[in-house]
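The instructor's notes for this session suggest beginning with a concrete chain rather than abstract definitions. Hand out the sequence below and ask the class to guess, before any prediction is shown, which regions might be ordered.
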Amino acid sequence: MHAQTMFQRALDLLEVNRVDDAIPLLEELHQMEPRDARVNFALAMAARDAGDDFRRLELLKKAAQVAKKKALVFEELARAHARVEEEEEAIAAARKAVTLEPKNPDMHAVLGEIYRTMGREKMARQSYERALDLAPDHIFALTEYGELQLSLGETEEAERYFRKATASDNGDSSDAYIPLSELRSRTRDPQDLARLEDEIAKTGNRTQKQTGRLHFAAGAMWDDADDPARAFEHYDRGHAMIYPDYEVDTYKTRIDAMKALFTSSFFEERKELGSDSARPVFIFGMPRSGTTLTEQIINRHQKAAGLGELRYFNQQSQALRFGIGKFRIFEDNVLALGDRDFRRTARKYLALLDKLAPGAERVADKMPHNFEVLWLMALAFPKATFIHCTREPVDCCISIYTKALSSGHRYNRSQTTLGRYYRLYRELMEHWKAVLPVTIHEQSYEAMIADQEGQSRALIARTGLEWDPACLEFYKGERQVRTFSKEQVRKPIYTSSVARWKRYEPHIGPLLDALGDLAPTR
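After discussion, reveal the predicted structure:
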């Protein structure tokens, strides 16, 4: 196959989420011409979709060395640096993109995005406003500005920006429809659904993922209109468009290998390798299990700080090649770790906490999927607080299924893959509780809803702090919240998410079957 034909074929595969099929073609092209900026850029996009953050960054750096005047390359390089929490490098790359194309609103909006993800509100506002000065109907800038407002609790202002974005003819507005559809305080305009259905029906240059996101927005609006049947028609279609295929059996093999590697004797042989610091409070569990709520309660304590979703331990695991390639490579890398490696891991993490939350006695790190990396966290910080957030399995899964999570959540491909993945997560957590040399505290979402004060007091006590009444007003926090729960945690406790599954029972048969004995009795 001719090189140009191979390249176009790979791009076409990426367009329809066939990442696993595109990568071999791009790798072959990369071997033929390792400095080709186009190939490195395309491989970086594939690495992004495959969840390989370090490979993505490496490839974009190579592309930038050749394509020194391509703003698009530096735009993506900025996002890649931000993903691995290299803040200054991310800002420098985004500013380079702006310098190369100072009159391109895309570049100013991306710089704003970088600032927003880093919590630099003032600088983000300036960048968004500059983008909108250049193009008042710029969809990405309007949507990003709305996301910033929403993260700060300014829901009315957020809705205003989202509506401007959906009304714009300047490109694709699928990303704006998602947050607009999920605003609980959204003005209920009866024309919203009609406009959205018309938008889905249009043909044009929209990608498959963009159309999938519109289906998710329509699902949320039909759900809000009390028509779960129509909602699930859209949700099911959206999943097939956003998420690549997912092999649950492959993940099961990985979980089995982890259980065989991380045994009680593994930890017994590696006692007292890490830090004696009690500052970290690790919050983990499946997405949508109450991790944001738990973090916000702790964040309100005068001696604590919540930092949102830090990717530090996920990146340490990636560097060891977990989930990337053969498990044996990861296993060999783990077994090669010595005392110095664990202490260095702990030291760098504490330096990150000092930078982000200086003076805080306890710092909450809320990364749901850290449940896969508990082996490393427990060895690095045996005196830290470990909080496992739990929720009724089917309610948790429905909340995941009805949200347009990033394509990295490939297990969310279908109701069946989601339910089977959930079972494997529970299986791994049972293993950790049996072998880890730390205490894992269970925090039930339903228990918190039923007894907010009692559960909040117990939660704070687990961290070793004295009780602070401000923790009952978790929704008054001023810090940016940058997760899917950012609107919900600005409000007092509500009960509508408990036993939510009953409303959808006729439409979730595959999920209930996949959950097996974890599903409620029907």
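Then share the key points. The beta strands are 280-284, 304-306, 362-366, 385-390, 440-444. The longest strand covers residues 385-390.
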